[in-house]
Amino acid sequence: MTLRARRTPVQIVDRGRPRSDAAFLRRVARAALRHGGRPELPVSLLLTDDAEIARLHAEFLGDATPTDVISFDLGDSAELVVSVETARRVARERGHRARDEVALYVVHGLLHVCGHDDHGVRARKRMRSAEQAVLAALGLAVAPVDA
User: Fold this and answer.
1) What pTM was computed for the model?
2) Is 34 strand, coil or helix?
């Protein structure tokens, strides 16, 4: 009998335009979770636009402005909301692919769920280092927004 490694379930709802590469985003999510020490955490990922993420940002965090990513640690699973619209705009400004910017947001959000924080100089430095380690392992070179 051969035992198969259990794959982390990553469910994706893609409302972005153009559609994102789901297999790529599953690899990104799994890499971030492995790095964060929660490799088997199920993840639901919503890819959307600025209007919807602003609505969710207001509803759950009291801030009606669009943002890049919102993450929710539900204990036995995680939910992420990513603005593909923001990713496209920022990627264009910074000269890289939108998919790489979306990957950065997924990594960032999942590292939050895994206990990383970016409030304070030390915590931010640690998180940025973790982001870069995950992205490098995936062969991506995307600098954080505040770099």
Assistant:
1) 0.91
2) helix
